[in-house]
Design a protein that fits this description.
2 helices; alpha+beta; Translation Initiation Factor IF3; homodimer
Chain lengths: ~90, ~90
């Protein structure tokens, strides 16, 4: 899966990400788009995916797969910190 | 799947939820536990699941399925609001 078909969720306005997903499926003709996020942005990744599936591309895309993962590393204070991530794979259905 | 095997993620201290998951698998002998959350708590549900799988019950439980959904309703100002939810199903593997 090419990174061109990924949308990384961050701090920008919510609709920017929804639009990215929609454009990849429509203008760019992608068969799959992966919505990716880490940490607190995971909730937003679910929101973006739901709005794309149930409103903007209703009946045209569906959920293919959801993957979760986490990485552990040391923060500045030397403490072990675990950060979770999610990848929501959406696919064209019609 | 009985609600006894569900853990709803909210505002309580993080380890309360991890402990709930661990106790259901160990003391209560559950074969499956579903970690559920809505809105901003979705990120936390992923964190709880990851910590249970990779730290406390490493090698003993795994990810079975992840479901996402959303509901639309009107808020106090009469605007349509969509709230996402997640259900992460963990299962005993050993």
């Amino acid at each position: 899966m090419s990174d061109d078909n990924s949308v990384f969720i961050g701090n920008k306005p919510f609709m920017n990400y929804v639009t990215s997903v929609v454009v990849q499926f429509t203008t760019k003709g992608a068969k799959e788009v992966t919505v990716k996020a880490r940490g607190k942005f995971i909730s937003r990744a679910v929101d973006v995916s739901e709005v794309a599936m149930k409103r903007f591309l209703k009946g045209q895309i569906g959920l293919k797969e959801i993957r979760i993962d986490s990485e552990e590393f040391k923060n500045k204070e030397g403490q072990d910190v675990r950060v979770s991530s999610i990848e929501i794979v959406l696919e064209k259905t019609a």
